[in-house]
Amino acid sequence: MTATSQSKYGENSTRGNKCSRNPFNSIKVFVVCHGFLQLSQLLLSGYLRSSISTIEKRFGLSSQTSGILSSFNEIGNTVLIVFISYFGSRVHRPRFIGLGALIVCSAGFIMCLPHFIMGPYEYDKSFASTYSNITDICQPGTLNQSPSSDQCMTTAQRADSQVLSILFIGQILLGIGGVPIQPFGISYIDDFASKRNSPLYIGILFAVTVMGPGVAFILGSFMLRYYVDIDKLPSSEIVLTPSDPRWIGAWWLGFIVAASIVVLASIPYFFFPREMPKEQVTNEGADERPPGLMDAFTNNPDTSEPVSLAKFIKVFPKVLLRTLKNPIYILVVLAQANLSAMICGLATFMAKFLERQFSVTASLANLMIGSINIPGAMTGIVLGGFIVKRFHLSLRQCGAMCIIGMLSCVLIALPLLFLGCSTQQFASPQADPHLSVGLWHNVTECSSKCGCSKSAFNPICGADGIEYISPCYAGCQGVNFDYAASKVLNYTHCDCITSPGSGSSASPGSCGSSCYHLFMPFMVLSFLAGALASLSQTPSFMLILRSVNPAEKSLAIGMQFMFLRILAWLPGPVMYGSMIDSTCILWGKKCGAKAACQYYNNNLLRQRFIGLQIIFEIGALIFFIAVYCVLRHKDKVKAEEEENPETHKLNETEGNLKIVPSQEKEVAT
Q1: Which structural domain, as residue segments, surrounds residue 351?
Q2: DSSP 225
């Protein structure tokens, strides 16, 4: 530690003794606290993704709309990220992180407000009583029924608009509050941790924060087991079960739990110092504090004079251009953008994909993602950080490791294209004829006399193995009701069901899937693919940290996250949502307009969903190969310069960008 640092922290003074006893002067304590905060922040943001399919059904949203909602928090984040990252070297970073966390928790409480604004959830035949199910069967001679839930009042439409506005405002605040958390935390750790331990701390930090979405999906699995109006209705009036297609879980309850955890995680940040003693190491000179970000603009590492905003605006384009001219930086960011777009899309819609593909409940789908997919990604990140530290990988070796991980991931993901269920045959008065060839049975003629509601959705499984969207559209004229259990046993005398030897009856609920045995093999391969893709997380991040000017490290990190938001986190969920909507066979109706999709072409959904994932993985692989080629070329040029020192000096004079040997060694440490 330098004399200035000794004087500042007073190691031979009373203040120095207090610093040594203060746990908030330890970078290890900061790593633990920051891991917990990022875990809780991602728990909150990830919870929306775990309940996105439920929110779609509750408010009648398309997947494209829910994709926009999922990515909306990146708008405020993208606008502020670069400037916040720049001022990171001039402000009290821990306190800014704490303030951001408080904004995040307020966003969580706002996101649950629509539940309290809206009335009780209403669906087709809200209560399974004798009366309601008699009205849901075929009644010849009646006119087209229009249940009260189908009548669109102006106040109801205004309420739906208010709900979406509240959700979007919450997402914007969630993005704004998250701006300082990761860039400030990473730069703070890299400034005060030893060069040898910095890669390990960052790897651990990424691994711990990956647990956030995992816990979010497990929390979603737990909350969606409860009925959405558990606080509004007595349990005796809740007759639907989670396996019913009309079931809506308590999506709002998880936001309250997650926001409360973020409040607790924000408290320690108001006690960390602006600067803390550098972590002690054995290598001589390795504990010197790296230059601050403002040194890139002042060219004076010893000054503490703050840089004016006017000077920052004037010099910022030059520093930005210098960073963008770094080929390694740009190629790594583009590779990460492909991976991030894939991860955002999968995180948002994987649960819905599993629900539709394997006919599992939303609770089980979330549980599988939280206990299998997320731990797989965490395993890959930890293993990647361990390999970088254990084998002292150089920059070129880090690039090779990224290539191996992505190539293996692509090979493992290919079989997923063939693991899934075919679409269940269903009967409806209308469907998309281009997507439902051989799957859709038109029942307009046999149910025309029944006067069925156009928006009816109460699926039943006929004796012929076909799923009908309601007993009315199956032409069922009778119902057997179990009064003791308060549930329907079966429907009888169904004119549209013609199954030789099986009669014309139908049982309530969906017909389900016949390929559930493929569910676990699919999850195992997903686990392996996620782990292999995550191997590149730590080495690719170290490529960025060690290939830019140390004085511009915070700015480079800020721009990295800005590019990832623009190129991946914003469009990723929207792309996946639009792709999912393109496979919809039958759309639901709400107020006469298109609402949430009721049936998908499962084969087409699987091909496009997994195919888009593989395309992004191949894109990342191509850019990592380009990174390796650039690093190999730089090694070759460096070897030639060592043989010809005169040419080396001339190139330095001309200002060519190079990775010096000292930076190469930093990755190994």
Answers
A1: 21-287+312-421+517-638
A2: T
| Per-residue CA distances from 84 to 184, 316, 561, 565 (Å) | 8, 13, 12, 15
Residues of the chain with pLDDT under 50: 1-15, 126-133, 145-150, 153, 283-306, 653-669
Domain assignment present for residue 279? The answer is yes
Residue 251, domain CATH:
1.20.1250.20
My answer on whether 353 and 484 are in the same domain is no
Q: Residue 162 falls within a domain, yes or no?
A: yes
Sign, Cα dihedral of 81, 85, 88, 90: negative
Cα separation values, 573 from 59, 234, 306, 345, 552, Å: 18, 37, 40, 5, 31
Q: Are residues 228 and 211 in the same domain?
A: yes
Instruction: Characterize the bridge pairing of strands 584-590 and 506-508.
Output: unpaired
Tokens of 515: 């390929």
Rounded Cα gap, residues 325 and 319, in angstroms: 10
Half-sphere exposure in the Cβ direction for 240 (13 Å, CA): 26
CA 531 – CA 376 distance, rounded (Å): 5
For residue 223 the two structure tokens come to: 């909350």
Q: Position 429: which residue type?
A: P
Assess whether 462 and 608 both reside in one domain.
Answer: no
Burial status of residue 274 (CB atoms within 10 A of its CB: 0-12, 13-18, 19 or more)? exposed
pLDDT of residue 527: 94
Q: Does 663 reside within a domain?
A: no
Alpha carbon distance 139, 477 (integer Å): 7
Domain limit, last residue, from 483, 511, 539: 511
How many domains, in total, are found in the chain? Answer: 2
pTM of the model: 0.80
C-alpha 175: how far from chain center: 13
The pLDDT value given to residue 651? 53
Backbone angles phi, psi at 500, to 5 degrees: -55, 125
Residue 10 structure tokens: 């007073």
C-alpha to C-alpha distance for 215 and 235, rounded to whole angstroms: 28
| Statement to judge: residues 411 and 437 lie in one domain | no
Residue 291: name the closest of 300, 282, 279, 283 by CA: 300
Compute the distance between CA of residue 115 and CA of residue 169 in angstroms, rounded to an integer: 15
**What pLDDT sits at residue 133?**
45
